[in-house]
Amino acid sequence: MKNSKIILPVVLSTVLVACNDESKPVAVTKPIPTPTPVPTQPTKPNPPTPLPTDNGELLDPSSRGDISVNGGATRLKKERSEALKASISNRNVKHVILFIGDGTSESEITAARNYAEGAAGYFKGLDVFPFTGAYSTYSLIKGTKSIDYVTDSAASATAWATGTKSYNGAISVDRDAKPQQTILELAKSAGFATGNVTTTELQDATPAALAAHVTSRKCYAPTQTSKSCPKNALEKGGAGSITEQLLQTKADVTFGGGGASFKDVAKAGTYSGKTLFDQAIAMNYQVVTDVKSMNTLTEANQNKPVLGLFADGNLPVMWSGPKAQVDGNKGAASLCTANPSRSSNTPTLKEMTAKAIDLLKTHQKGFFLQVESGSIDKRNHAADACGQIGETVALDEAIQEALAFAKQNPDTLIIVTGDHAHTSQIIPNDADSPGKTVKLLTKDQVEMTINYATSKDGSQEHTGAQVRTAAYGPHAANISGLLDQTDLFFIIKKAFGL
Amino acid sequence: MKNSKIILPVVLSTVLVACNDESKPVAVTKPIPTPTPVPTQPTKPNPPTPLPTDNGELLDPSSRGDISVNGGATRLKKERSEALKASISNRNVKHVILFIGDGTSESEITAARNYAEGAAGYFKGLDVFPFTGAYSTYSLIKGTKSIDYVTDSAASATAWATGTKSYNGAISVDRDAKPQQTILELAKSAGFATGNVTTTELQDATPAALAAHVTSRKCYAPTQTSKSCPKNALEKGGAGSITEQLLQTKADVTFGGGGASFKDVAKAGTYSGKTLFDQAIAMNYQVVTDVKSMNTLTEANQNKPVLGLFADGNLPVMWSGPKAQVDGNKGAASLCTANPSRSSNTPTLKEMTAKAIDLLKTHQKGFFLQVESGSIDKRNHAADACGQIGETVALDEAIQEALAFAKQNPDTLIIVTGDHAHTSQIIPNDADSPGKTVKLLTKDQVEMTINYATSKDGSQEHTGAQVRTAAYGPHAANISGLLDQTDLFFIIKKAFGL
């Protein structure tokens, strides 16, 4: 399929439905070689009779019928007060799966839905959550209590990962650079298995904040840490670079990109002089680098932790398309295509999520898993609508995997949110925007213009609007209304009974 | 206070708290002469013992404490599954109050909160709703089933007012120009009292769509209707202009602007040759034109309907400030000031809402009331951040009035939403936007930059993102998750038991 232009909106209606069905191939990647099946629960007994399914009814927000007639466009199928009431539970959960769409809120979700499902359609993952709300995302100015209205991904990840507000650039340290315990560390210390999955470099802010504490998000590896985070450097008695701390924190499952940083060399400590890759091997990590090797994994635990390094940098995105440009909406509409530089050897977010759940679910106590679709943000920065939309669709497909697990395991809380709002806006096709625009032909077979207009020539900017939250499962009711980003830490902690 | 520059962010913390307290004056308008109190329920018996307060706990989303320490920025005060569960009800309501912030969603609410309450603060109206969600707002291309991703206020108001999707410009007619029954007409025919309150012209899309059916939103008065909506013109056997239909539909209470259209003359029918103002008088409308006369009203019903005409056009907005301009954020930050061209003779949205509720609540059967803060949209179009924020604060204050009523009358459903998303975005203060920007000094005593970048020189554009919904009271649980705009009609209908 490399370089072949496929008519995605038309094909996608079939493809995206097909993606729900494990027996059918995923259309935008090559067929994946199926390894010899390995039982995922070889030694554990089957769980007892499932708990009552009180996770809350998932929504079916499909349009009722002909959208041009009275009631035809409605999404609510029935009065649902009693159903929702019956579904609410505050009992402890075994599993929490937190999905982060980096830079993903109402505008990004709507644009992706319009393109891939049609305006009257819906995402079978993103759009079916019974409880939804919004949270504030402001950060602090370093060393002060002063407000920064536009957070970066580091301060925002620190906020939900630790419950503490911090400054832009902080990785799970507070405004005074003091390390804060993360929800992954807390869950791990309480005996839960843990996982950390992303489509970006593992050292990028969102995954890093779960497992590392450094004063600057730049400090991926030892060399940069000595320069930018000297107090964190191993040779200065610190806990080391983000990558070194990721290894030490040792989630049971860690999947993402960022392999390049593992080529750097430790400057002190037990592994002084070794590459971080060699350190991982010495620490007994099972390192996998493609779909095939990922699928051979049969266990992930503290003796045999799993490290998936699927790219040197960020994983290549799913879709390509025209970049937005000044007056871009005044030309013809375009279609998104499969990213030709993406190989089916690289796992999709859905595949990584499915594998992570399979590996973690054998742990008796339960697990905490964070899954990030990180390049929704990066393609928004780059004014690349197709890139952004494709990664949002990838997020949706990963969420569908988790929902399928939660339906079978009602002691599961799933939370879906973004870390901050972003630039992209859907504007009228005849708008005369001062920014960069692109016009796409959607599944509805009509044109949709996306506007990127927070930066003239540089990277498009984050924005400060409160961000959508959504949840399913016990404790999900806490997610509606207005929260702050820091509330997530405490909601998850409480859900675990910690 | 005219022309005086007041430091609103500093003063507002006091003012807005004070606004909750009826005994204190409203700071940004002159003290209002208090008319001789008139009992509002002179002949009706007091209601029996109130129903159980099962409207759902209102949230207290204030930050817990010092936002720079662990947990200090959280808004959730306790695990609320059981409280929310206990509060959910699907019993019929007597009263529905629907608040529309025109062009108001996450970005507008966050910007207003940051300015007036601080980022860690909250609005005592807008932000306290226990159930929140989002709805899709797409409209149709006239005469087709084809999608328009960016609605105007006419198609969107038609959607929730009638449950039918239509084209931009449509006032409660479907894509083929066929009139659709509105929720106000339905409630009225079922014996409920009705009210329609706005800060814009009464003929503007949002209030018009409740009570009129015309093929173009422009058709305010007979002269324009003959030109732009000939099939609707009285002299062609139609139902007349928006203004004539508003009079005929005869809500018990109609408050807003748009007096100018009442000077036009009917071209046919019973009132042929008379101004629409004279027609109103002939129809026994009690016409009031300022706060003082509004406050003398003691009843509103089908024999003595109430028509408040508080401006020839839109009501003047509450606040003024610098317009956004290219590189506006590169200069000094500004404060918003009271709009010098606003007189305290003009009622605030809060005052109109309070009076409308007072007049409607005496009706035994109950009432339907729509309240719109319409100039949030208009000032967003004009890249006027202070105007936009001031009208958002006005919406919040009006909502607080309704919440106070609902707490005393648990058989009340309140819904708060916007009709479409809009241009304004909070961006970093050092951003190099291609659009128009303005930098404000907020209550937090820090700078906040607002970006307007969907139109180079013309009116800023609506945007297509799904829009926040929020609700309180019986049936409120239906508002969470993903809805379409048309769902509102059916949720309200069902809540009334119709």
From TrEMBL, chains A, B:
Signal peptide bounds: none
Source superkingdom: Bacteria
Binding locations of Zn(2+): D102, D377, H381, D419, H420, H462
UniProt remark on cofactor binding: Binds 1 Mg(2+) ion. Binds 2 Zn(2+) ions.
Active site residues of this protein: S153 (phosphoserine intermediate)
Residue ranges with Pro residues bias: 32-51
InterPro entries: Alkaline_phosphatase, Alkaline_phosphatase_AS, Alkaline_phosphatase_core_sf
Record-given protein name: Alkaline phosphatase
Organism of this sequence: Acinetobacter gerneri DSM 14967 = CIP 107464 = MTCC 9824
